[in-house]
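Report of the visiting student (M.T.), summer placement. My assignment was to run the structure pipeline on a short list of targets and document each run. The first record concerns Erythromycin esterase family protein.
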Amino acid sequence: MNQNEIIEAIQNQSIRLDPEEGLDALIDAIGEARYVLLGEASHGTSEFYTLRTEISKRLIERKGFHFLAVEGDWPSCYRLNRYVKRYEGADDNAAAAMGDFTRWPTWMWANREVIALADWMREHNAGRAAAERVGFYGIDVYSLWESMEAIIEYLEQTGAPELEQAKAAFSCFEPFARSEQTYGISAAFLSESCENEVVKLLRDLQQKRGERRHADYQDGEESLSAELNALAAVNAERYYRSMVRGGPDSWNVRDRHMVEALNRLMKFHGSRAKTIIWEHNTHIGDARATDMAGEGMVNVGQLLREAYGDEVYAVGFGTHRGTVIAGREWGAPLQVMNVPRAEPGSWEDLLHRAGGYDKLLLLGSGHPLFQATLGHRAIGVVYHPEYERRGNYVPTRVAERYDAFLYVEESKALDPIKVGRVLV
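After the run finished, the C-alpha cells were exported:
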C-alpha cells in the first residue's frame, strides 16, 4: 500500500466541507435511498451531532424522510418524540422532554446539540397533520425495566385486557431487583429465565394492535409504542442473558433487535417510508469490511444492506484530534478528554495529511485505494486516550464499510445539560 497514492486520491475526490456545497453534494449522492445511516466515531463529539442534524434537516425538507431512529432507549426517546410531534400532554420544552435520559451514558441524548435538533423538528412539525410529522425514536435494547413499566402504564391508561397478563409476566423479574447482571447470571447459568412470559406478551400486543381500530394517529402510535416496548423487553432479556456468557452473541442480539425495531417502524409509516439512523460507526458501517466479521459479529449496516441493497446509504464520521466526552469506566462521571492526533498510517491520519480542513469524501466501492485495510479510530463511552493505540483502531476497508465519509479536522466535546440535579 502506498500512502502517498491514497493521500492524492483523497485530495482528488474530496470536497471541502463548507456549510452549503459539501452537504448538498452528499444529499445529491444519497439519491433515492430510504435508509440513510449517519455514524459517529464517538458518542461525545459535538460536530458529529451538528453535522448529522444539518444532513437530517435537508433529508427531511428535500426528500421527505419520515423519522429519525437513534442509538437510544425506546421509552426515553419516545418522550422526546411526543414533544417534537406536539402531542397533547407532552412536555413544553425540549430540556424537560429529556427528563428520562437517566441511563448512563446520559450525555448521549441529553445535550444542547440534541435540544437544537428537537426544537427544529418541533417547529418543522407545526401545522402538519399528525401522520405527516417527523418522529424521533430510540431503537436500542437496554431498557428492560423501563419498557416493562411503560407497558403497564399504557395498559392501565387504556383499560386493556392484557394488563393482568403483563403484570404476571413482569412479576417473573421482581426477584432480581432491577439488576441486569443478576438476572443475566440467573437466566444463563441457573435456568431462571423469564423469556417465555415476555415473548407471549409481545405476540399478544402485536396481534391486538393489528385488530384494534385506533381513534387517531396518536392513538395508533401509542399502541405501537407499547408493542416496541414489549419488543425491547423481549430482546433485552435475551441480551442480558447472553451478555454474561461472553462472545459475540450479545452484540448480535442487540443489532438484530435494532433492525427488527426499524422494520416495525417502517411498516407503521407506510410502504415508501424513509428513515435516518443515528448510531456509532461500529453499528452503521458494514461489519464485513472490518475484523468484526471474523469474530462472528454482524451489525445494523450489514443487515440492512443484505436486506435492502441500494436503498441503504451509510456515512462514516471521523476526526483527527480534539476533545470528547467519555467516562474512565462504565458508570463513571463524564469527563472532557483530549483526543490525541490520529495514529500515523491510520485512515484519519491520511485524511489529515491530504489537507488540514474538514472534508467530505464520496467513496464508491470501485476505488481500489480506498479498499486498503487501514486503522480507523473508534471511541466508546469508556475511553482511555493514553492507551488508544492498543484498542481504539478498527482495521477497515473504508470504501466497503461506508458509501461516504465526513472528516472533521479538529473536533470538540458535546455540551451536556442537567437532567434534574445531575449534570449529564
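The chain has two domains: 3-138+274-423, 143-254. The mean pLDDT is 91. I thank the supervising group for their guidance throughout the placement.
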